[in-house]
Amino acid sequence: MVNNALINLLVREEQRYLCKKPKEFLRCLLPFIKKKKFSSREVVENIYLDSDDHGVPFGVSIRIRRYLAKRKRIPTLHNEKAFLEYKKTVGINKSKHRQTTTLQRAVALANQKKWGLGNQLRPFFVVQYLRHHFLPKKGKGMRLTVDWNIRYYYFPPGDHQGVLIGSEQDYARIEVKKKLPIPEIEHHIHNALLATQSVPVISKRIRAQRFLHRHLYQLDPRPRLNEMPRTQFQVKFEMKRPNEQFFPQLLSLFTTPQGNFHRALLSPPLTESASIRRYHQVNKKLQLVILQGELIKLVERHHSTTLRIPSTVGIVPIQKCRVETKRLTLPQAYRVLSHPLAAELDRKKKVFWVEHNKTHRIYSIAFDRSQYHHRYLYQVEIQFAGTRGKPSTRPQTMIIADLACLATIIRRAFPQLYFTSRTKSQWAGLDESK
To answer: Is the CB of residue 92 less than 8 Å from the CB of residue 14?
Structure first.
């Protein structure tokens, strides 16, 4: 008999790190922690639910968890005992509701109105990994987990068998979960993270989104050409009243063509991503490092200007700047990350693309949430993303006109949005001149 009792887990703080030397990390902590084996089933399988329009709000994870005696070569949706979990994140604090049920019943329960979306959720991703638990030898209220050999699978619509889309074999993920502070052990964990050059990392669910984007992008036979490489053109809005479920509304606007624009038939047609944006003071200069799992980038923006284009909904501010991006190895990244931290922002976004009927220029439209401490910034961004048509020798004028047109269409449909030129670092209170 299945126990359908709902268990509310207390709010706790969670921190996640990417570690290339997990065995060395554990050796550093051996005098202070002990391994705890909760059961013989140490392989964890998380089945993440979502809707095809990515309707699950930012900061929410709806998943079905199963514990396995050994890894399955190809995960399937067999109706076995499982735990339905609804996890909500606010800042670094997380709360979780867990219910014991079966897999099929879990999907039905998740689609009830109380879970928020109503008959739209389906199994989307499967993440499998080996998990080891550790507890402090002194003190209570803290748990440390190390996840090894992580594999990511995708369920295409209607399929009951997962498709492998990526893996994390060269490093482990370390998670520190605490309800109460234990300063002594936290100090040793901090030193072990420094010694192994471990860095903050995005969630497994979002990592699965990145793997899926890469997997589906490789299936797209029509490449896009960037007519103005390293030059970024974009328009930004902010929201008067934040709405976590705004993305499906934005997406539905382009269900039918709008002027000269229609939904672009790309692979994938829409995606979701996240990053940790860290601003460091390096030689009196502010440097931005973006962390997305093993992908770590140093981003520099130069010659930023704002073009103000008149329209029927007011002046449209189009930002133009030169963007230099350099991919960093972990040692290279750590040389920057070891400098004083000015701010750390957590960014999540959902994106789809539209295409011009005649020129076949493509523009991304993103719903974006940035978090700094316990403050949130919600933005909509329109950005030039390349062309599938014949490239122009002077494309800037047409790109600017397209951005102004798209901005007008969106502003008319959603008057709660207002134009902005404010950058994320300015919103966080950083002086970009340094």
So the answer is: yes
